[in-house]
Write a structure and sequence with these properties.
Layout lengths: L2 H12 L3 H8 L3 H9 L5 H13 L3 H14 L11 H13 L6 H19 L4 H16 L1 H17 L3 H11 L1 H14 L6 H4 L12
Helix pairs in contact: 1-3, 1-5, 2-3, 4-5, 7-8, 8-11, 9-10, 9-11
C-alpha cells in the first residue's frame, strides 16, 4: 500500500470528510486532497498521520507513516552511533520525568540549538531539520491541543464513545480551541521552509477563513 492509499484508508476509517480529517491533523483541505491523490506528505504530516492511525486502532497504517517519516529524516529519529545513544537516552529520560525536571528550560535550549542549526544548514537537508524544529517548538506551546485532548478524554469517559468520536465532537463544540491550535502550529513553523504551508488563512469578523 502506498502513502496515498494509506491516507485515504485512514480517513475512511475515521468516517470523516476530507475537511474534518484535515481539521484533526491541523492541515489544509487542499493538503489532504493532494495527499490522497499524488502528493507525498511531509514530516510533520507523517508524524500526525501515524499518531492518528494509532489512536483509531490502525497499527499497520501507523507503521506505513512511521516508516516514511523515518526514511524522510534519514533515520535521524533513532541513534545511529554509540556516541548518540546516551544523549538520546538522556533527553528521553528528562522528557519522561518532566514533572521532576525543568523541562521547559531544557526544551527551549534544544529549540534554540535547532534554530541555529537550521540557519547554518542553508538549503542542505533544511526541510528535514525544519520538520524536527517545528514539532519541538510545538510541544512547548501546544496548550490548545492538550486542552482538546483532555476534553475528548473526559467526554469519552462520560459517553463511552471512541476517543476519535469524542475528539470530533469536542472540535465541533470548541471552534475557538481549534483556531488556537492552528495558530500555534503556524507559530511553530515560523522562520522555517514550512512556514508558508502552515500559515493560517486570514479571518473575517464572522470567524470564517477568507
Amino acid at each position: 500500500m502506498d502513502l496515498h492509499e494509506a491516507v485515504r484508508k485512514l480517513r475512511l476509517t475515521t468516517g470523516e470528510s476530507q475537511q474534518a480529517f484535515a481539521q484533526h491533523l491541523g492541515l489544509s483541505l487542499r493538503a489532504i486532497a493532494n495527499y490522497e491523490k499524488d502528493r507525498v506528505p511531509n514530516g510533520p504530516a507523517l508524524y500526525r498521520l501515524a499518531r492518528l492511525a494509532r489512536q483509531v486502532g490502525q497499527p499497520d497504517l501507523a507503521q506505513i507513516f512511521s516508516s516514511a517519516l523515518s526514511e524522510e529524516f534519514h533515520e535521524a529519529l533513532d541513534p545511529m552511533t554509540p556516541e548518540e545513544k546516551p544523549w538520546s537516552d538522556a533527553v528521553i529520560a528528562l522528557l519522561r520525568n518532566r514533572d521532576l525536571t525543568d523541562w521547559p528550560q531544557v526544551g527551549r535550549f534544544i529549540v534554540g540549538a535547532l534554530e541555529r542549526l537550521v540557519k547554518r544548514k542553508g538549503d542542505e537537508d533544511v526541510e528535514d531539520l525544519a520538520a524536527v524544529l517545528l514539532e519541538a517548538r510545538y510541544t512547548l506551546i501546544n496548550t490548545a491541543e492538550r486542552q482538546l485532548d483532555q476534553l475528548a478524554k473526559a467526554r469519552q469517559a462520560k459517553t463511552g464513545d471512541s476517543y476519535h468520536k469524542a475528539y470530533s465532537e469536542v472540535l465541533m463544540q470548541s471552534p475557538e480551541l481549534y483556531e488556537q491550535y492552528g495558530q500555534q502550529r503556524a507559530e511553530a513553523a515560523r522562520g522555517t521552509p514550512l512556514e508558508k504551508t502552515m500559515a493560517r488563512s486570514p479571518r473575517t469578523k464572522s470567524g470564517k477563513s477568507k
